[in-house]
Amino acid sequence: MKRFTVDRFEGDKVVTECENGEMAIFEKSALPKSIKEGDVLNFEAGSCYLNAEETKRRKEYIRKLMDSLMED
What we know:
With 72 residues, the protein is of the alpha+beta class. It has one helix spanning 52-70; strands at residues 2-10, 13-18, 23-27, 40-44, 47-50.
């Protein structure tokens, strides 16, 4: 299984970052319709799906990190 994070949208393309740091570009039409920047996608056995649990975990981690930076 490979895991990618949605970095940005460029027209009909989706720019993602793989776990190993490499960037990959996919056709928007080949990915789940509801994806947003920051979402985690899993590619496994020829299919792609949104990993909502990992996306939520990462967003919570970033929120906590930002909160700790704002503390006096």
